[in-house]
Write a structure and sequence with these properties.
The protein is α/β, with parallel strands linked by helices. Helix 2 runs parallel beside helix 10, helix 5 runs parallel beside helix 6 and helix 11 packs parallel to helix 13. It folds into two domains: about 120 residues, Alpha-Beta Complex (Aspartate Aminotransferase, domain 1); about 230 residues, Type I PLP-dependent aspartate aminotransferase-like (Major domain) (Aspartate Aminotransferase, domain 2, 3-Layer(aba) Sandwich). Helix content is about 40%, strand content about 15%. Strands 2-10-9-8-7-3-4 form a seven-stranded mixed β-sheet, sandwiched between helices. A four-stranded antiparallel β-sheet has the order 11-12-15-14. It has a two-stranded parallel sheet with strand order 1-13. Strand 7, helix 6 and strand 8 form a beta-alpha-beta unit. The protein contains 13 helices and 15 strands.
């Protein structure tokens, strides 16, 4: 039965000429690459911004109890995880928090473990600080990914491996890690004295009926050895407001990170960073439920289209994020060349999986957080591009 939507996710929002990173492209191009949505945010968030803007004074800001309460209430209610107020630190973004953890929890020359293919900015956060990326490649079989725990333990046991960055849910493969998997990761990291940074920015964008598990909620080992990065920005499409939070239950790690975040000057909120989060987590639930349903419909549209009209491209089964991971290994091992060809030929702008390392060289990433009409147009262009590529290049 089709869902009745209160909010207009079908609306085309013209973002050209707005200094949008995503839409700073040629007039003929359709960008379905970077992870921001083409939907307007929840109306209560817009109202919070307008109310604050109308004050006409934009001075320094404090972090009130209402900010802590909004976050702790949301995680308790939606994710069955009790976060203590004194576990929370404001940060301007998840990436600055991860970079800070790399700098403060490891030494130059150390290994930082990641599970590839994974969000490519992790590599920058590690390598720009003079640390080494150590890959624990995910196992891939018939359109599904899993963890290679034997390889994971071997890599964690290396004396120079001091930090693991976990992506939960996982970007770009859309995997929601289950309790057993998370507990095993936590136990292995504790055994080998490796701290865990869990990037949980995509946690609220899950398929209806599917829920994510906060890493720190799974066991005492996970809780006391973790730095969890959370934000309303991905969920409510407000990344440009630069607002996030870091959850650190262990007092020693908390003090290290608090000092680091303040030293890096990423622990003070801009004028809109607090009020928008409070509005999102206290008034945004109905909007989010409709968003999840709409993205779920878009995901099914893509899956059906590929199976019926473009079977050589396989969509990896996923239950989280609005990013689709498309397997093109049936006809290419060079997704970079493929994406460049499709963009030049059709104007459809997608991301090559090679930048996520692991087995990503034959995959492409597609963002379907946009009106259905744009998804359908993107699929038409993808089909045209793939067919032309096979005829002209192969």
């Amino acid at each position: 039965m089709a869902m009745h939507y209160t909010y207009d996710f079908d609306k085309i929002n013209d973002r050209r000429g707005t200094n949008s990173l995503k839409w700073d492209v040629d007039e003929r191009e359709i960008p379905m690459w970077v992870a921001d949505m083409d939907f307007q945010t929840a109306p209560d968030i817009t109202e919070a911004i307008m109310k604050r803007a109308r004050s006409g004074i934009y001075g320094y800001n404090i972090i009130p109890d209402a900010w802590h309460d909004a976050i702790t209430s949301w995680w308790d209610r939606r994710h069955d995880f009790t976060i203590e107020k004194d576990w929370l630190i404001f940060c301007t973004g998840v990436v600055p928090a991860i970079t800070c953890a790399v700098k403060r929890m490891t030494n130059v020359g150390d290994n930082v473990l990641v599970q590839t293919p994974v969000y490519d900015i992790f590599f920058h956060s590690i390598e720009n600080q003079g640390r080494h990326v150590l890959e624990n490649p995910l196992k891939y079989d018939k359109g599904s990914y899993s963890i290679d725990f034997e390889d994971l333990e071997e890599k964690l046991s290396h004396p120079q491996t001091t930090l693991m960055i976990l992506c939960n849910p996982h970007n770009p493969v859309g995997k929601i890690w289950n309790r057993e998997e998370l507990a095993k990761i936590g136990a292995l990291c504790a055994k080998h004295h490796v701290a865990v940074v869990s990037d949980e920015i995509h946690c609220d964008i899950t398929e209806p009926g599917m829920e994510y598990l906060p890493f720190a909620s799974v066991s005492k080992e996970c809780r006391e050895n973790s730095i969890t990065c959370i934000s309303a920005t991905k969920t409510f499409n407000m990344a440009g407001l630069q607002t996030a939070a870091v959850v650190i239950p262990d007092k020693r790690i908390f003090e290290i990170m608090e000092r680091g975040l303040n030293s890096d000057e990423v622990a003070e909120p801009n004028t809109f960073a607090i009020d928008t989060v409070i509005a999102a987590f206290t008034k945004g639930e109905k909007w989010l439920e409709e968003l999840r349903a709409y993205i779920g419909e878009n995901r099914r549209i893509v899956d059906t289209f590929l199976k019926e009209q473009l079977p050589e491209v396989v969509m990896v089964a996923s239950h989280a994020t609005y990013l689709l991971w498309l397997d093109c290994s049936a006809f290419t091992e060079d997704a970079t060349e493929l994406c460049q060809f499709i963009r030049e030929k059709t104007g459809l702008y997608l991301l090559p999986g090679s930048q996520y390392r692991g087995n990503g060289k034959s995959f492409i990433r597609m963002n379907v957080a946009c009106p259905k009409s744009q998804v359908l147009r993107g699929l038409k262009l993808l089909s045209e591009g793939v067919k032309s590529y096979r005829e002209e290049i192969l």
